[in-house]
Amino acid sequence: MSARRTSFYLDKRNAKFLGVCAGIADYTGVDITIVRILTALGVWFSGGSLLVAYFITAWIANSKPYALYDQDADTKKFWQNARVAPQRTIRDVNSSFRDVDRRLRDIEGYVTSSNRRLASEIDNLR
Fold it and tell me: Where is the Phage shock protein PspC N-terminal domain (predicted)?
């Protein structure tokens, strides 16, 4: 079974302690330093109750599969967007397909039009 790219995983490779902050940063696309600072502030202002949630998350969550570490930047960014806002990702993909379809229609219309100069250039290539 392949690893699900839309799940939350502990990021042990980029971890300082248990990989929860690194996993949150990887899941949301937020810089890991910001996540660590917010976690430290949250532990301080919550009186330590956030620390309990941190350890429970580290205990329950799975480690990130090694297959997901070897992604290029575009693939990683796509899956982060898909996790955070799946409807927006679907809308963006549909928009890209509509744009490609429109450009292809324009090219087909230009090639099949009665453009004499284009027709003569094509005939010269033969």
Answer: 8-61
